Request: fold
Amino acid sequence: MSTVQTEPVFRARSISKVYRMGEVDVSALRGVDLDLYAGELAVFLGASGSGKSTLLNILGGLDVPSGGQVFYREREMTGADESERTGFRRRSVGFVFQFYNLIPSLTALENVELVTEIAEDPMPAEDALSLVGLQPRMHHFPAQMSGGEQQRVAIARAIAKRPEVLLCDEPTGALDYTTGKRVLEVIEKVNSTLGTTTAVITHNAAIADMADRVIRLRSGEIVEEYANKAKKRPDELSW
Amino acid sequence: MTILNRKVFRELARMRGQVIAITLVMACGIMLYVSSRHTYISLLKSQESYYATYRFADVFAGVKRAPASAAEEIARIPGVSSVRTRIVMDVNLDVPGLDEPATGRLVSMPERRRPVLNDVAIQEGRYPAVGRPEEVIISEAFAKANGLAPDDRIGAVINGRQKALRVVGIGLSPEYVYEVQGTGSIFPDNLRFGVIWMARDALGAAFDMEGGFNDLSVALSSDARELDVIDRMDLVLEPYGSTGAYGRGSQISHRFLMDEIIGLSVSSNFTPAVFLGIAALLLHIVFSRMVRAQRDQIAIMKAFGYNYLTIGWHYLKFAFLAITGGTLLGIVGGFLLGRPLTALYQDYYRFPDLVYELNYEVIALAAVISVSAAFLGTLHALRSAMSLPPAEAMRPDSPAHFRPLAMERLGVHQMLTPVWRMIFRNMERKPVKTLLSAFGIAMAVAILVMGRFTFDSIEYLIDYQFRTVQRDDAAVVFAGPRPARARFELSHLPGVVRSEPYRAVPVRLRAGHIAKQTAINGLDPAGELRQLIDRDGQALTLPPEGVVLTRTLADLLAVREGDLVDVEVLEGSRMQGRLPVSLLVDELIGISAYMDNRALNRFLGEGSTISGAYLSVDPLRADALYRTLKETPAVAGVAVREAVIKGFEDSIAESTSATTFTLTVFACIIACGMVYNGARIALEERNREMASLRVLGFTEREISVVLLGEQAIVTLMAIPIGFLIGWGLCYLAVNATAQELYRMPLVITGKTYAFAFLVVSAAAVVSAYVVHRQLRHLDMIGVLKVQE
Ligand SMILES: Nc1ncnc2c1ncn2[C@@H]1O[C@H](COP(=O)(O)OP(=O)(O)O)[C@@H](O)[C@H]1O
Ligand SMILES: [Mg+2]
Reply:
């Protein structure tokens, strides 16, 4: 992907997030400004508790900021209510979490179909699975698959509706080295072949080498942001 | 407070919805138990003290007319401790404000008050004064139904003469706790039947019984053998036209009261057991889930050195605390509910005072039962908590394993959306849990069916007996056998459309060792007002020879069609003979026997004689006809069908509605409890799935389909099962009631099934809605952040 950014998909302006924990307020985000551009693969780095997940959840419409504004394309998301945000997630966002959160009672294929069924213009569920290399195992239940396979099903499920953005929160956090790399390959493939704007959260700095752009957070603030000149393929990464 | 106890209270507070459900179901069960047990004990004690205080007799006999010497002879029979002779006569009454004639049972009393057998408990007013033959005491039920009070007057046709009686007292008697006229009318009709106690001299003079009697009551000493005494009495009384001595077991009021008390004793154990079983089921479902969710906590506690007993006790405490509220509520509520429940019985069974007091034994037993239910319900959960090895428990609960199941094999899954596949696979994966939940809801359905069944059954019984079998508008009973031409006098009365004579004769039927007292009804073979009907509702023709028995009577005598029965006539000639059983018929009330009236006349060796007539009446002129009959001395009584039915329906409706209402409320609580708990647990167990779906963009409404679809299917599955169980419960209830007096037909209408369906569905929808609202608070991010 080119690093010459075009129009932004997301624009966040001085967003803040305060969690009220009884008597004390925890500031998870303190005035973050951020643009995510169409088709780029952004990696978010930062220590645990630095606010990465909070930021991603706000962008994806899972959560709302305490202050500031978020725009998705031309649309201001900040004032959207729960049902608008549900519709937004349904149409435009794919999520992948550290824990795969597949539905245990549905097979791999059915987990994907769960989404294609409610999406407007999905790809065939089989295609999504073959994109992540799991077509041969599509009739297996989650309990019959390894963690890496389950995470790839989760990715297939996230991209099957052809979302504009794919948000991955520590997708390799629960996986071993080789399996983790396999999952990163899949994410990279989705980003390059489908052109899906992709954000990947990690606390593993080595992963930053596969990004178009790297954003580092500390204590709820963006402390560093740079374009990655020497972008590597996932199989070239090592940690 | 120890830390573990603090954990118990906090977690109970968090589970309060489920605790409330358990509390309510438990409270229902205990309340039913405590109230019906108290009612049972109250009736039993009231009966005991009533019988003792007012000296209820042990053996009874009626004769045509016997001299005082016969009574002296009976007093000498070993085992007889005291004897009371009386004059008892049924007469026509003219009650102010009542159009139809009423029947009064005149019962003689000593001139001056002294303790006698079958004494009168005066509730209001006073004992008749000496030398005042017109002063009478009337029975309370009759007084109330007709609005009569001391100083009111009623007319009576005594031995053909119109007499005015003056009410001076309102009374009760242990002989008429259940106040009915006798065979034939088994339901109280307090408007048209009452007992009237009057001075013996006045009664004796009126019926030419001075120095004699026609009714005898005997008290037995404690070592007496009732059957021996009865045999000896029969011997003594035989020459005086005895209708046969009988013990309390055949005394109609006592029989009904005992049937009721025994029935209450059975149901006071049975119905609550159902509720407590359901409470145990709920506890099982809730606590199994709880222990499963707390595996890691159990493992940590074990790792820290808590032993398995401490852990077991910890979880048992949950169960005990969860049931404490329900038990206390049930005990207090049950005691309070028992009082009005007992009072309901007072409409049919009249006691001078009802003994209703707190019974500690019942309370203690209630506590034992609820603790046992708690223990039983948590047994499974406790076992798994205690036996969990700490190392294994540290790992998360074994991941949900799904395999292709029946649905895949049948290929149905292809027709289902992924959401419905989730629902079905979840149910298939835990078939026991699914079945237990369905069973709980099915019990609610069954209880509803059982509650409304009484209505159906009684409605059917009335229709069958009073519209299909007995088609007359009124039955006239003559004061004694009359020549057949009396029939024509009746048919000429204004308003009589049709009259069919009958000859009724009291008999004792005997087959082998078994004897039963009843009456043979000689019917007009060309008649239409009395139908003989078989099991399938087919009308049968009256055979010209032999005796027709109701199937119940034949079963009691152990005879079949073609067998011979010995017949002992209990009036007039007192002849004995033998008759073949020519046909069996099915009736729901009583143990009647029928014959062609000509064959009966022949058998009795008499000319054409009749005892009364069945009338078909022009409704427009009915009132005038009944007034005329009321004033006709030869008519001893008139049973007006619609009046009998109405009196019956009025009296039964109240208690039936009360029980149905209670059962409906309780069944709703069960249905709500089961559905609510099922959905709550599903929500807890599957909140990760729910959160994932929400993240994927499913709306609240869409995910509640996943959650509640299962409850909907379980409920729908439960309903037919509940219908079956309900049918079974009704079957048991029908067979537990006394067969001889009347038989509750096992009839459950579509209306009842529809009612049960609607009530349970509504309860399910309401509870589902409550859980649906809780989905709003689902924490999507929080749930997904943590490891499964
Ligand atoms: N639901 C919540 N309630 C309270 N505090 C929260 C909540 N979620 C996150 N936080 C706090 O906000 C801060 C940022 O959290 P998070 O965005 O999860 O960080 P990261 O993903 O970078 O590890 C942390 O201090 C965390 O404790
Ligand atoms: Mg995080």
